[in-house]
């Protein structure tokens, strides 16, 4: 396990899993939110994000935490040797996202860029709620298309996450 991509809805636990894996493996974490968002939650020009993503995955060892699957030519899946999909229930993700926003509303988070404070936006909550319908099919299709040499872990519960971590 040298290059790990972690996917899932907001609140699924991507950043927490990335931190746990980094502790166990010594791999560097790359939070895609930090690479993607500009201050004030402003999206970058697509070519800018493609360039920083390509630079991140060119490294030999990493954990990528985040989605942003709408960009063509995404190099992370060609380089990843492990992909973890946190396919948790939407109610779990929504509860965690709300709790995190309340808990961190006045604190900086390392997995968010400067100038993008934690908040409880209705658009984000809608994205979390609609993730199973709008985003999960794309993730499942990408996982099915991966090279046979890529270890794919589809974790559907916190117990699955604990078992996965115990095996690392």
Considering the chains and any ligands shown, give keywords for the structure.
alpha/beta; single chain; 5 strands; 168 residues; 5-stranded parallel beta sheet; Rossmann fold
The CATH topology turns out to be Rossmann fold
CATH-defined superfamily = P-loop containing nucleotide triphosphate hydrolases
Q: In the CATH hierarchy, what is the architecture at level 2?
A: 3-Layer(aba) Sandwich
Q: Which regions have little confidence, pLDDT < 50, spanning 5+ residues?
A: none
Major beta sheet, strand line-up: 2-3-1-4-5
Task: Quote the average pLDDT.
Answer: 92
Q: What class would the helix/strand composition place it in?
A: alpha/beta
From N to C, what is the helix and strand string?
A: EHEHHEHEHHHEH
Q: What composes the largest sheet? A: 5 strands, parallel
By DSSP (H or I, 4+ residues per run), the number of helices equals 8
* Dominant shape: globular
Give the fraction of residues assigned to helices. 40-55%
Q: Say how many strands there are.
A: 5
Tell me the strand percentage band. Answer: 5-15%
> N- to C-terminal separation?
9 Å
Rg (C-alpha, Å):
15 Å
> What is the number of independent domains?
1
CATH class: Alpha Beta
């Amino acid at each position: 396990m040298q290059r790990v991509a972690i996917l899932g809805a907001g609140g699924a636990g991507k950043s927490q899993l990335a931190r746990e894996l980094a502790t166990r493996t010594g791999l560097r974490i790359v939070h895609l939110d930090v690479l993607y968002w500009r201050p004030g939650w402003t999206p970058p020009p697509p070519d800018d994000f493609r360039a920083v993503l390509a630079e991140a995955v060119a490294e030999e060892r990493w954990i990528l935490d985040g989605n942003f699957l709408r960009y063509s030519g995404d190099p992370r899946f060609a380089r990843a040797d492990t992909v973890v999909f946190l396919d948790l229930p939407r109610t779990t993700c929504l509860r965690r996202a709300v709790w995190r926003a309340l808990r961190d509303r006045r604190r900086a988070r390392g997995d968010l860029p400067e100038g993008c404070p934690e908040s409880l936006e209705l658009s984000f909550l809608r994205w979390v709620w609609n993730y199973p319908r709008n985003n999960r099919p794309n993730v499942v299709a990408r996982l099915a298309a991966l090279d046979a040499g890529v270890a794919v872990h589809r974790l559907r519960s916190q117990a699955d996450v604990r078992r996965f971590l115990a095996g690392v």
